[in-house]
Specification:
Elements (H helix, E strand, L loop, with lengths): L16 H8 L2 H10 L7 H8 L5 H26 L6 H6 L3 H13 L4 E5 L5 H8 L3 E6 L2 H13 L6 E5 L12 E4 L31 H8 L4 E6 L13 E7 L2 E9 L6 E7 L3 E6 L15 E5 L1 H5 L3 H8 L2 E4 L2 E6 L8 E11 L2 H11 L1 E8 L6 H8 L5 E10 L2 E9 L6
Parallel strand pairs: 1-2, 1-4, 2-3, 4-5, 6-8, 14-15
Antiparallel strand pairs: 5-7, 6-7, 8-9, 10-12, 10-13, 11-12, 13-16, 15-16
Helix pairs in contact: 1-4, 1-8, 2-4, 6-7
Length: about 425
């Protein structure tokens, strides 16, 4: 797909994507969007049949498709914004969720940034958050459809005065004069795709130089501005990260959402884990990173580090905080003898340690009356649902079982979250 070219005009029965989207912005299109709002999947066919008697079939299909996307978007953007915004399937998949974008926008605002060039803006998730923080935004993407959606979203949320959307190759945009540059390269694209935007494609890209645009170009662009934030894949090899930047991994309720390279913040080169919604941040300069913790016997407590902590290679820092060590040299579970509350890991009190044996686990759970079983695993090939089917938990109590390795041996640890711990 060549995003630089506008979609074909199409026909009245089957207009191109850009024409179909433009039709949604007309009074008739907006009326249809209101009519289909809240439509359940099972009601779509009957509603579509009725609406096609008085409206073009293509417009009815576009409205119903947009309503499906809005329903999916609630998880990222919240019900209020999702009901007013516009989406494409790929744009929604690749967009930054509001909480994460707001965190980044707040940080840029705290640095005194008043204008940002948002390169590879997609449908505008980050641009909207920046504008809500009072920052003027140039939002750039090469896809005509994506730009139309981003422009409509800024208008829908009352932010059009702060967001200029420009259709262009990001590699050709002059960012001089902006207080910061934000680059969100496409990391899902088919082979042979060009550069400069976040249009179609759904193949995950692992090589940073296969980003669109490549990481090396994005880093160069970042260094031209007083401040910059460059979004990268959370699983990027640490050796691919420039040595002089602050790298932040962001999670929301334990689920890692993204990683960002920060330029110009005045902070030393470091690794940072930021946990949302609390905002707790664990940051360690590169020259103070601790070596891997020692492996030790299972203690009374097991600590499950937050995903951002693991990605940032800060498990050793958590182990230091709780006075613990690792269960296994290759597993990111920390064990300790005493409880030490920390926002960077969830603590569990361990009651039992067993070699991996399904029959023994089933007997123990039956003896304890465990009917609600949470299964967590690291270093085990067993699937949680498969284990639940085999042990058939039944009873009024709850427990957590960890399928892992202890000093290399497959092991089951049974316990429960420490009261008051936050996930």
């Amino acid at each position: 797909m060549n995003d630089r070219n506008a979609p074909a005009p199409g026909t009245p029965e089957d207009p191109g994507p850009l024409a179909a989207f433009a039709a949604l912005l007309t009074p008739e299109g907006r009326e249809l969007l209101d009519l289909v709002a809240g439509t359940a999947p099972g009601e779509e066919l009957a509603l579509a049949t009725r609406l096609r008697r008085t409206h073009p079939a293509a417009l009815v299909s576009a409205a119903l498709g947009q309503e499906r996307l809005r329903a999916r978007a609630v998880a990222k953007f919240g019900a209020g914004d999702a009901a007013r915004m516009f989406f494409t399937a790929h744009g929604l998949e690749q967009s930054t969720r509001t909480s994460v974008a707001a965190h980044r926008a707040a940080r840029l605002a705290s640095l005194g940034v008043s204008s940002v060039a948002d390169l590879c803006c997609g449908i505008g998730g980050d641009a909207l958050a920046l504008a809500r923080a009072g920052i003027r935004v140039l939002a750039v993407d090469r896809s005509p459809l994506t730009c139309a959606v981003a422009r409509a979203n800024a208008a829908a949320l009352g932010l059009a005065d702060l967001v200029e959307v420009r259709e262009a190759e990001v590699t050709e945009v002059d960012t001089r004069g902006y207080g910061a540059v934000f680059v969100d390269p496409a990391r899902r694209a088919p082979a042979g795709r060009g550069r400069g935007g976040r249009g179609g494609g759904n193949v995950r890209v692992f090589d940073p130089e296969a980003y669109s645009p490549p990481l090396s170009w994005a880093v160069g662009a970042a260094r031209t501005a007083p401040y910059a934030a460059l979004k990268i894949a959370p699983g990027i090899p640490h050796e691919a990260i420039p040595e002089d930047v602050e790298t932040e991994w962001v999670s929301e309720r334990g689920d890692v959402k993204e990683a960002v390279l920060w330029f110009g913040t005045g902070q030393p080169a470091s690794r940072r884990a930021t946990l949302l919604p609390s905002g707790a941040a664990l940051a360690v300069p590169l020259d103070r990173m601790l070596p891997d913790p020692e492996v030790r016997p299972v203690g009374r407590y097991l600590y499950e580090p937050d995903g951002a902590v693991i990605r940032a290679h800060l498990v050793a820092e958590v182990a230091r905080q709780v006075g613990g060590g690792l269960l296994d040299a290759t597993i990111a579970y920390v064990t300790a003898d005493e409880p030490h509350p920390t926002p960077y890991a969830t603590a569990y009190e361990i009651t039992d340690q067993l070699p991996f044996n399904v029959k023994k686990l089933k007997a123990l759970l039956r003896e304890r009356g465990v009917g609600t079983l949470t299964v967590k695993k690291r270093g085990s090939a067993v699937e949680p649902e498969e284990l639940r089917r085999k042990v058939k938990p039944e009873g009024p109590r709850a427990a957590t079982v960890f399928l892992t390795r202890v000093a290399g041996a497959p092991t089951m640890l049974i316990g429960a979250p420490v009261t008051g711990e936050k996930n």
